[in-house]
């Protein structure tokens, strides 16, 4: 994870920082016992759950799970790469970084620069310069200005214009020494079929740079200024650009999304920019395609609430329904902002202004179920008995997907009042619909999915307050000692190896074995710097915040190891117990006696 910066420089930077001072630059902290607490900057909350430990030089949020050290905090708050963050902190603390270190790297391995990402960065700067400073870009500039997009917004989103010339970008890339065939593979150039010559892919188009989560330009969307088709042209999928995994505007919106614990999802680039002007600075959009599971996962990692604001026509509302179901599947609380028919967000803001858009559209967004109910009423004559019964049946089907009983009861009562129906009759009918549909839509979750399902169903609670099973706690406390004591880690490696029951605990143990195997000394902050998986970083920071004894005794170690090793045997005993109960119900005396003896023998073995 260190990229091009030497390990000793990273250690020096880490040791020069006081995490309390670093975090205090971004939020207010209050001392509470040995720790400092404050409102988490990464999700919306009213009760402080963000804890900073000066002793361990770590932070952890017991609400959203965010955690890490001073370096990871600055990375998350400022949206910087690891290399950029360390370089900036080193400069601030007067620590020299070797001249060979580059901070203008694109999304290469470990933050290292790649020619393909540098090519896109150069193209973005070039297109932006043409729009803002040349006669060639004046028509596009005037068009954007007429649409209410100010120069400030053009700068914020780095909008640009591609000249109506076949080889102007190609010439610039060639002059700067880029491999033109690689630029073709990355979608900046294309090969003309008739001549075999390489040409600029984008011509006479307003250019919308598409950036990844770190803010690096990885592709473009181009809107034609003339009559060329298609009206919008995206970069093709490549090793750098995957439109199903990117969200337009997310690099600009990320801080606001986390601050407000909400995002607004639009259909197009112009909608995001117009909404940003209207004060909706947590807006983002998919790239001209239906929302994917991967995009929904990215949104869910950063917020719990999403408002869908799609076009007011039938196609837009159908797309909003599909997107809402994808988002709900990831555990998001979904709402839908309703626009008048045949208008999009950009049009609405042009016609009615920014205040009305905020107050009458965004702030009046409907819960997703209410949006579905309104959509199901369309094209139905509710005075007709057949349409009325079909409508009630369709609403009941959608209600079966609701996870909370209070929510189902609310809509059932609403339906009963609307049509003067018996609430009991509706409940019976809904139960019939539920039984018909079965549990295919929501199979019972297992393992870590259980926690996600609990959050989706409204049973969310602070991770720090969870009552973990004994084997789970044993693994957590063992890992906490391993992070703080090299010798303890070596003992665990000898006695337990990789036999942790939870996959993420086994992964952390493997990283610790490798970390100490490289000759590193015990340092939790330094260990976290060696982790690249965000989920493991969160897990490690939460475990590191546990209060443990300074040294682990032999008895304590043996007790933890026994609990971890014996857990699979207890699972097996429970399975036998279930079979025993079934045998007793079936009055199979012989099988019941056999299973009973097997259980007794297994329990005796565990007590030895």
TrEMBL record:
Pfam families: DnaB, DnaB_bind, DNAG_N, Toprim_2, Zn_ribbon_DnaG. Residues 261-340 form the Toprim domain. Its EC number is 2.7.7.101. PROSITE patterns: TOPRIM. Residues 448-458 have a biased composition (Basic and acidic residues). Binds 1 zinc ion per monomer. Its cofactor is Zn(2+). Residues 102-114 have a biased composition (Polar residues). Residues 99-118, 438-458 are annotated as: Disordered. It comes from the Bacteria. Keywords: DNA replication, DNA-binding, DNA-directed RNA polymerase, Magnesium, Metal-binding, Nucleotidyltransferase, Primosome, Transcription, Transferase, Zinc, Zinc-finger. It catalyses: ssDNA + n NTP = ssDNA/pppN(pN)n-1 hybrid + (n-1) diphosphate. The keyword Repeat does not apply. SMART domains: TOPRIM, ZnF_CHCC. A zinc finger (CHC2-type) spans 40-64. RNA polymerase that catalyzes the synthesis of short RNA molecules used as primers for DNA polymerase during DNA replication. HAMAP family: DNA_primase_DnaG (MF_00974). Belongs to the DnaG primase family. PANTHER family: DNA PRIMASE (PTHR30313). Monomer. Interacts with DnaB. Contains an N-terminal zinc-binding domain, a central core domain that contains the primase activity, and a C-terminal DnaB-binding domain. This is DNA primase. It comes from Salibacterium lacus. The lineage of its organism: Bacteria, Bacillati, Bacillota, Bacilli, Bacillales. The gene is dnaG.
């Amino acid at each position: 994870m260190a990229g091009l910066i030497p390990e000793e420089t990273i250690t020096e930077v880490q040791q020069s920082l006081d995490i309390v001072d670093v975090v205090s630059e971004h939020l207010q902290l209050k001392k509470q016992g040995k720790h400092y607490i404050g409102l988490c900057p990464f999700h919306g909350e009213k009760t402080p759950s963000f804890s900073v430990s000066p002793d361990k030089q770590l932070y952890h949020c017991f609400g959203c799970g965010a955690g890490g050290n001073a370096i990871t905090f600055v990375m998350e708050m400022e949206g910087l790469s690891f290399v950029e963050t360390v370089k900036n902190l080193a400069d601030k603390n007067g620590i020299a970084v070797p001249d060979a270190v580059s901070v203008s790297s694109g999304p290469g391995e470990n933050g290292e620069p790649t020619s393909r990402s540098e090519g896109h960065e150069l193209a973005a700067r070039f297109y932006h310069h043409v729009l803002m400073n040349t006669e060639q870009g004046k028509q596009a500039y005037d068009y954007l200005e007429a649409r209410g997009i100010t120069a400030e917004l053009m700068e914020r989103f780095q909008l640009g214009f591609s000249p109506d010339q076949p080889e102007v970008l190609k010439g610039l890339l060639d002059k700067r020494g880029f491999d033109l065939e690689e630029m073709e593979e990355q979608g900046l150039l294309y090969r003309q079929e008739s001549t075999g010559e390489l040409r600029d892919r984008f011509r006479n188009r307003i250019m919308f740079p598409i950036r990844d989560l770190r803010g690096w330009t990885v592709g473009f969307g181009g809107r034609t200024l003339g009559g060329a088709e298609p009206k919008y042209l995206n970069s093709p999928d490549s090793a750098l650009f995957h439109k199903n995994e990117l969200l337009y505007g997310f690099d600009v919106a990320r801080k606001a999304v986390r601050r407000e614990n909400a995002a607004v999802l639009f259909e197009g680039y112009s909608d995001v920019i117009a909404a940003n002007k209207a004060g909706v600075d947590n807006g983002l959009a998919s790239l001209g395609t239906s929302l994917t599971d991967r995009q929904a996962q990215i949104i869910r990692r950063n917020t719990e609430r999403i408002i869908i604001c799609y076009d007011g026509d039938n196609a837009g509302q159908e797309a909003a329904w599909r997107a809402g179901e994808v988002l709900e599947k990831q555990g998001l609380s979904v709402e839908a902002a309703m626009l008048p028919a045949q208008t999009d967000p950009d049009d609405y803001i042009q016609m009615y202004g920014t205040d009305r858009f905020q107050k009458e559209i965004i702030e009046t967004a409907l819960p997703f179920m209410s949006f579905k109910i309104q959509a199901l009423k369309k094209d139905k004559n509710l005075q007709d008995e057949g349409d009325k019964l079909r409508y009630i049946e369709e609403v009941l089907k959608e209600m079966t997907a609701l996870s909370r009983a209070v929510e189902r009861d609310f809509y059932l009562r609403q339906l009963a009042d609307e049509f003067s129906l018996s609430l009991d009759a509706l409940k019976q009918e809904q139960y019939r619909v539920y039984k018909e549909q079965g549990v295919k839509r929501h199979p019972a979750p297992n393992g870590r999915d259980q926690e996600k399902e609990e959050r989706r169903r409204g049973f969310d609670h602070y991770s720090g307050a969870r009552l973990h099973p004994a084997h789970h706690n044993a693994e957590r406390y063992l890992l906490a000692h391993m992070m703080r004591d090299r010798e303890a880690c070596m003992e665990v490696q000898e006695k337990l190896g990789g036999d942790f029951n939870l996959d993420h605990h086994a992964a952390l143990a493997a990283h610790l074995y490798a970390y100490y195997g490289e000759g590193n000394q015990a340092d939790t902050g330094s260990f976290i710097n060696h982790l690249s998986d965000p989920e493991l970083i969160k897990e490690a920071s939460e475990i590191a915040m546990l209060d443990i004894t300074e040294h682990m005794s032999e008895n304590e170690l043996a007790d933890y190891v026994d609990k971890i090793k014996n857990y699979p045997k207890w699972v097996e005993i429970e399975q036998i117990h279930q079979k025993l109960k079934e045998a007793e119900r079936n009055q199979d005396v012989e099988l019941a006696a056999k299973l009973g003896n097997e259980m007794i023998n297994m329990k005796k073995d565990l007590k030895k």
